[in-house]
Amino acid sequence: MNTAHTNGEWHAHDGQIYQTETGRTLALIPYFDSSFEEGKANQNLIAAAPDLLKSLVEVLEELNQARRAQNKLTLSEAERNAQAAIQKAINP
């Protein structure tokens, strides 16, 4: 999948999201406090974004293949939601 975002694995530490291979900072969470559970969860969600996007694209491709094999023409609501989320991520 070709995208404009920074490729590779992203990691998070103390409110900093960085690309693992280069160590380059991609984002900072302002006022990050490691004792604040919501802040830690937010940094982990941001760091997981590339993996989540890739997985969602793969799942949708498999659903599309299964739908075509069964000659179903309509998309499920879940498939439409997945397509919308992918578009939001790659074409804001």
State the main characteristics.
alpha+beta; 51% helix; 13% strand
The low-confidence parts are none
Q: What value does the Rg take, in angstroms?
A: 17 Å
Provide a count of the helices. 2
Helix content: 40-55%
Broad structural category: alpha+beta
Distance between the termini: 17 Å
Shape: elongated
Please give the domain count.
1
Strand order, main sheet: write it out: 1-2-3
Q: How many beta-strand elements? A: 3
The whole-number mean of residue pLDDT values reads 89
**SSE succession:** EEEHH
The share of residues in extended strands comes to 5-15%
User: Could you describe the largest sheet, including whether it forms a barrel?
Assistant: 3 strands, antiparallel
Secondary-structure blueprint:
Layout: E1 10-13, E2 16-19, E3 25-28, H1 37-69, H2 77-90
Antiparallel strand pairs: 1-2, 2-3
Helix pairs in contact: 1-2
Tell me briefly what this model is.
With 92 residues, this protein is an alpha+beta fold. It has one domain.
